[in-house]
Design a protein that fits this description.
Aspartate Aminotransferase, domain 2; 2 domains; 403 residues; 7-stranded mixed β-sheet; 3-stranded antiparallel β-sheet
């Protein structure tokens, strides 16, 4: 028996592992694991690492889900989703953006992540060149690489408000695609109407397919909502989600707004990869659009948390931050504290129970200088976390002075 086991292990060691799986981990999930280990050992954790609302789905969604459990078979649906939800999404675009979108352009997906995979597979081939900002959402970068697509890094910083510009893209031509995010993860910055229009025009002129992540729409802090790409680029794909504004992360529900030429390709891919999105989530999600009062109250809390966190970080001397126009993130330069933000975030978790995410998750080049803070938790937790960071920095500075 021992000899058989030894031979089996030797055979297993010779088995092939695909090159496409050799991508970076999603480091925020690693921080979540470390925070969970601390909590399991009895340690307190204040969660500023996770990009998800701390609130459950709205009451109307929960009621709709309960009704669906008792009245629906909950079998497969059309690959692009139930007609009632797609119709409701088109009404959402008319109400919020004054944009008339045909129902057949809506594809309901297994979260925004599943939607992004479908969009990328339908739009690009292996070795195509797709630009995305650095910093930018790491899972998109890793998905592109896993699918054999060349990621063309687009370094951005304070001089462009961490947003891409046509001038920056010009230097990277030729390109097959561009991934944008507004509001952005990790920076929270928004593409203004002028900026988005200029980018869309550049992409249309140069045959660049724009994939526009708009999953944080609804969570903004200025007078004007973030504009949508579909009103400005005929060939753009919009990736949207029920996770952030609608507070439905675990329901794994999102949608795409597709240009005409991608409707059937995405449908074929969805049929084969996913069959259909979760039926219960779809039926419940219809009600989410009628829960604005509850959801906007969440946004008001985020706005207060944002104020508290930015003020607290400033008191700690952490005041070089990206313009936090939307979403629920602060992306901060911490290089005056450490040139290894991953080690710094580890110390904060171990020493003061504050979990935050190193910038290396979002920027492989300069992320060691940055940390992303999420302020989606309760106001009490954000207040306490800010005070702990202030205290940690003050203690560090006193120790440095004594030395």
């Amino acid at each position: 028996m021992a000899g058989t086991r030894t031979r089996s292990l030797a055979t297993l060691a010779m088995m092939k592992i695909s090159r496409r799986s050799d991508i970076a981990p999603f480091y925020v999930m690693e921080v979540m694991k470390a925070a969970a280990r601390r909590a399991a050992a009895g340690g307190e954790v204040l969660h500023l690492e996770v990009g998800q609302p701390s609130t459950p789905a709205p009451q109307g969604v929960l009621a709709a889900a309960e009704a669906a459990l008792h009245s629906h078979r909950l079998g497969y649906t059309d690959a692009h989703g139930v007609p009632e939800l797609r119709t409701r999404i088109t009404r959402h675009y008319l109400d919020r953006y004054r944009v008339d979108v045909a129902e057949d352009r809506i594809a309901v997906t297994v979260g925004a992540s599943g939607g992004f995979v479908l969009a990328v597979l339908a739009a690009f081939d292996e070795a195509d060149r797709v630009a995305m900002t650095e910093p930018g959402y790491s899972a998109y970068r890793n998905i592109l690489r896993a699918l054999g697509i060349e990621v063309v890094e687009l370094p951005v910083g304070p001089d462009t408000r961490f947003n891409p510009t046509p001038d920056l893209l010009e230097a990277l031509l030729p390109l097959d695609g561009l991934v944008t995010a507004s509001p952005s993860n990790p920076t929270g910055t928004i593409l203004t109407e002028v900026e988005l229009t200029d980018l869309a025009g550049f992409c249309e002129t140069h045959g660049i397919r724009m994939i526009a992540d708009e999953i944080y729409h609804g969570i903004t802090y200025g007078d004007e909502p973030a504009p949508t790409a579909i009103a400005r680029a005929d060939h753009a794909v919009v990736v949207q989600s029920f996770s952030k504004y609608f507070s439905m992360t675990g329901w794994r529900l999102g949608w795409l707004v597709l240009p005409e030429d991608m409707i059937r390709p995405v449908e074929r891919l969805a049929q084969n990869l996913f069959i259909s999105p979760p039926t219960l989530s779809q039926l419940a999600g219809i009600a989410a659009f009628d829960c604005a009062a509850e959801l906007d109250a969440n946004v008001a809390r985020y706005a207060e948390n944002r104020r508290i966190l930015i003020d607290g970080l400033a008191r700690a001397g952490i005041d070089r931050i990206a313009p936090a126009d939307g979403a629920f993130y602060v992306y901060a330069d911490v290089s005056h504290l450490s040139d290894d933000s991953q080690a710094l975030s580890g110390r904060w978790l171990d020493e003061i129970g504050v979990a935050a995410t190193s910038g290396i998750d979002f920027d492989p080049t300069n992320g060691h200088r940055f940390i992303r803070f999420s302020y989606a938790e309760s106001t009490a937790d954000i207040t306490e976390a800010a005070e702990r960071i202030v205290g940690w920095v003050e203690l560090r500075n006193r120790s440095a002075t004594r030395q």
